[in-house]
Structures are given as structure tokens and as C-alpha cells.
Design goal:
CATH architecture of the largest domain: Orthogonal Bundle
Helix content: 40-55%
Distance between the termini: 84 Å
Oligomer: single chain
Largest sheet: 5 strands, mixed
Number of domains: 2
Number of helices: 15
CATH topology of the largest domain: Cytochrome p450
Strand order of the largest sheet: 1-2-7-4-3
Structural class: alpha+beta
Amino acid sequence: MDAPAMAWWCAVALGVVPLLVQLFWYWNDLKFWALLRWRSKNAKLPPGYMGPPFFGEMLSFLWYFKVVRRPDDFISSKIQRYGEGVGLYRSHLLGSPTIITCSPTTNKFIFQSPDSFPLHWPSPELVGESSIGYMHGKQHLRVKNFIVNAINHPNALRRIASAMQPRIVDSLRFWAEKGAIRASHETKTVTFENTCKVFVGLDPGPLAEELDRCFVGLVGGVRAYPLDFPGTAFHHALQCRKKLNAMFRGELEKKKKKKGGEAGDMEGDLMDGLMRMKDEEGKPLSDEEVLDNIISLVVAGYETTALATIIIGYRIPKGWKVAIWIRSIHTDPKNFEDPLSFNPERWNEPPKPGTFQVFGGGVRVCAGNMLTRIELIIFLHHLALSYK
């Protein structure tokens, strides 16, 4: 090849290769921007970056969450690059175009717009199509009323407190005798034991340990990319879901045979309450609804748009996912001084409106928040009065 031809091919390579790299790197941004402009010339997407095809920002997401273990840096990088005044950013996660909201105002808007943002995560294969985490509208309200009444009824609250207190007291005594403990592991253990007792009346033992292992697998799949083939976390989660369904169904059948007590009595648990309660029309929950909702209470929410929506001038196209990033509000020094330090005195004054969203909001506010509050109150009461 002569010199002119070599120079021509080098010029082509130097020009085309960078262009192809840029096209690959910004493929999702170009693709979804073009689709939006084709539908509406004046519409604009929130600021952000959507990454290359298929991968999107998942590699960056996994880097911050799994490798460096600094999940806050994922959203912080967007705030630093695009500014914090917006409160929402575009991305591409878990195979879907995604809008991340991370301000009190935008989060509140999403929470209070259930018709525009129905829940579509976790996958119904994992939590069940009859679960409170997947139902919408009147069906969601009906099931939520069952759960809230089963937990928040005065008799139910007394039963929950009486079931939790001995286990918490014993755990604190055991930790004190042991000396050094792994606080995260130990508190998860006692919390799960309380959950088993309150939800299905199970005491610690082989069945509870198997439930624990299955729930770990299920939650791992909830956070994983939904690829269903052997070896993936999602596939393992589906197998765990089947095992959980079988174990809880066994407990449900035992309760049917027992046929003892009334709804809300001191011997009942959450499963008993859900089995016995009836709605305003006299209809009880089906067995599948009971099982799905017992299982789904361990998972959180993720939103997806049913309608094209505009927030502070930015378009959220129909079908896009919306991830409510509550953690960024709770770890923002503007909302809480030195947010990562242990400082109980910070709660002597009420937080700024909308800055404490630990239980969600709107119609999707956590149905089990009273159960969590009671467990924390009992734990802190005995810890403060009995230990130094």
C-alpha cells in the first residue's frame, strides 16, 4: 500500500473510530432524545446520562454499590455534574430508561400521584400479583386496609408488643454477656425472629432458619437484573419464592385445621388476622392474597410511569421507570447536620417538611410502619434503662 493510501485509511480510522465510540457511549441518550423530540418538539428530558446500549448505567451503579460500597456517590456524582436544584435526573438502569428523583418536592409529587406512577417493582413473579406491592387503585386500597387493620388494631398492637418484648429482652441480655457483637447481624437476626413470630406465629427453629435463607435469596433477586436462567440471582430468587410459598401455605393449612380464636385475639398472628378479616362487602382475602402479602411485606417499592408526566418543566415519558431516591434526602447535610453520625438529640426538633420519608408517603406509605415503631420503642426502652 502506497503512502497516500495509507494516509487516507489512517485519516478514516482516526475520524470514524472516535465517532463510533461516541455513538456507542451516548447511544441511549441519543435514542430516547430522538424519540421524545419526534413526539413533542418542545419537550425536554431531565439532565443526566443514560449510557451505552443494553448496559446503560448499570456498570457504574454496580461499581458504587457492590465494589466501593459507597451508594451515595452514585447520585452525588449526578448532583455535582448537573446541579442539585433540579431534584430529578435521567438514567438507564436494569434494562429500562429511568428517572431518579431525590428531593423532597419531587419525591412528594411521585408519592401523591399513584395513578401516574403505579408500582411495577419488585417483579410480580417474586412478590405475587395479589400483593400490596403490585396491586393498584381499589384493589390496592382493599388489601392495604386488611393489612393496616390487622397490624394497627389496638388488640393487634398489644399482641405484637407482648410477642416482641421477651425476645428483645433476651437478645439484649445475650449481647451483654457476649461482650463484642456484630450489631448489624445480631439486630437482623432478632428482627427476623420477631417477624416470624408476629407474622405466622413461628418460634426460632429449623423452619425459621430455612425461611431466613429463602428471604435472603428472594431479596437478592429483587435487587438483581431480571434474567431467568440457572446461575443468576433472579433465577435463584424465583426458586426461593416457590419454597417460601410452599412453607407459608403449609402454615396456612395448619391454621385452617386449627380454626381457633377470633380475629385480633391475643393468640393470633398477622396471618390469622388476614385469614379471618372481611371487607365491607363481607368478602375475605383469598389464600393467594394472604400468602402474597405475607411475603411481599419484606420488599420495598419502585415506580413506573403509566402516563407521560411533566415535573418542573421536564417530561417523564410514558413507560419510563421512576426511582425514588429517599436516601439522598436523609443524608443531605442541608436537611440533617452531620447526617451519618449517631446523634439522637437531632430529633429534639422536628425535621424540615418532607425531609424525613423513611416510611414513604401518599397511598404507598408503609403499611407496617407501626410494627417497626413498636419494635424500636421496645428495643430503645430496655437498652436505655437496663444497660450502660
